[in-house]
Amino acid sequence: MAATLGTVNSFRYRGYVYDEETGLYYLRNRYYNPEWKRFINADVHVSTGKSILQCNVYAYCYNNSIKYADPNGNVAIVDDVVLMETVLLAGLGVVALLNIPAIKGMVVKSSQAMLDAVKAVASFKLKPLQARKEPSRRGDPNTDADLLDESGELKQRRHYGSDGTAEYDIDYKHQDDGTHVFLHVHTWTNGKRSKESIPYSEYFTPY
C-alpha cells in the first residue's frame, strides 16, 4: 500500500502528512521521525508544567504513542480513534471465540454472561474527548484537565495541586481584545481564578 496508493495519498499514520523524500511525518508545526520515534526539532514550549516528562522538548506523545496522538505537533491528546479500535477489536475477539466449538460449549453453560459481554461491547459509546466545557474546580491531586475547542485543539489546561483544588490554568487561546500574550497563566486562590494573566515564560521560569 505504501508503494502504491500511499504515493498518491500522503495522509498516512494517524492522519499525518508523510513526506516521501525525507521519510518524515509533518504534524503542522514540527516534523516527526518514525525511526527515531521523536521529533527532529524542539517543542515551542519548554515545559507544559505537567510532569518531568513534559520537559523533554523532543518527545512524541509523552513516549506513549499507543494512547496519545499529536495532531498539531505541539500538544499530545488522548486518541479517540485508538480507543474505538480497541473496543472494536475486543468485539471481534468475542465473535471469533463464539465460533470455536469448545467456546460454544461454554456459552451453553454460561450463555447469559457471554451475551451480556457482547451487548456491552455492541452498546459501547465513546465519550467525547475532554468535554467541551470548562474543567472542574476540583480534580485528582497533581493532575491536569484539558479544555479543547471545537476543532479538538487544546484551548486551556487546568492543573490541580496536591489537595485536588485548581492551582493554575494555562490558556493556549481564547477571544482576545489585544491585551493578552499567549501562552499565559491564571492562578487560583481560595477557589477563585485571578483575572490578571502571567506570561507562561515568566510563571514557569525556574528562578
Brief digest:
By secondary structure, the chain is of the alpha+beta class. It contains four helices and twelve strands.
Q: How do the helices and strands line up, and which of them pair or pack?
A:
Layout: E1 17-19, E2 24-26, E3 31-33, E4 38-39, E5 68-69, E6 77-78, H1 80-98, H2 101-109, H3 111-122, E7 144-148, E8 154-160, E9 166-171, E10 184-189, E11 192-193, E12 198-199, H4 200-203
Antiparallel strand pairs: 1-2, 2-3, 3-4, 5-6, 7-8, 8-9, 9-10, 10-11, 10-12
Helix pairs in contact: 1-3, 2-3
What is the radius of gyration?
A: 22 Å
Q: Give the overall average pLDDT.
A: 76
The total number of structural domains is: 3
Helix content: 10-25%
Order of helices and strands: EEEEEEHHHEEEEEEH
Amount of beta strand = 15-25%
Tell me the number of helical segments per DSSP (H or I, 4 or more residues long): 4
